[in-house]
Amino acid sequence: MRVLALDYGSARCGCAVSDPTGVLATPIDPVLSPRSRRGFGRLRALVAQLDVGRVVIGLPLSLSGADTAQTVETREFAAALERQLPVPVELYDERFTTRLAERTGGQASEDSRAAAHLLEGWLAAHGTSPEAAS
Asked: How many domains does the chain fold into?
């Protein structure tokens, strides 16, 4: 099953997708204005085109684990997206993914690299990546 990870931001949503075996996380082009009609449409299209079985959205908690204004907005986005998709949507702690994306560099956008780090963490936590087996 492929998993689509999203690093939500109101202007831009970083995206990454796993391979069907759940081993690799690959950043893909971000979706602009994800809460707009066009943004939701693009996300629905990605789920269909990539044969995604689950969407994981990064939950931006404070360092103490408390909710922030961005956390509330992200929860609202996740609920709205779940109403539009035929697959489960879940939230996953994204603390430090942006910092990791800044350090790793690469061709993909920083938002999509952050989504890839988020996805790697989710895959490891759910026992589908090589890191989880070690």
From this structure: 1
